[in-house]
Design goal:
Layout: H1 33-36, H2 49-52, H3 56-71
């Protein structure tokens, strides 16, 4: 059996150069809150590298800066404001309980 070769095709995706998320003048530091807040989700989690479009070294430095800011209480560890916004109270028991003697 002969194997058929497929013709070489170029990728149809166009290459678009994006601006880097961290500029050359930006310093990655725990005090730079405007920079750090760009890499945190709404829940307070550190966004992954594929979402941030950062290099490995930049992601490590951002992670360290975020953790330092959390320890120094410049940032919250979690943002769970929506968790406590329940309008109706949920009862756990379905019937009345009686004590056994």
């Amino acid at each position: 059996m002969e194997k058929f070769k497929r013709p070489f095709r170029k990728s149809k995706r166009s290459f678009r150069r994006r601006l880097p998320p961290i500029g050359l003048g930006d310093q990655i530091d725990y005090r730079n809150m405007s920079l750090i807040s760009r890499f945190i989700s709404e829940q307070g989690k550190i966004l992954p590298r594929r979402v941030n479009r950062l290099t490995l070294k930049q992601q490590r430095l951002i992670t360290i800066a975020i953790k330092q800011a959390r320890i120094l209480s410049l940032l919250p560890f979690i943002n769970n404001e929506k968790q406590f916004e329940r309008t109706e109270s949920i009862s756990r028991t379905t019937g009345t309980r009686t004590r056994k003697k």
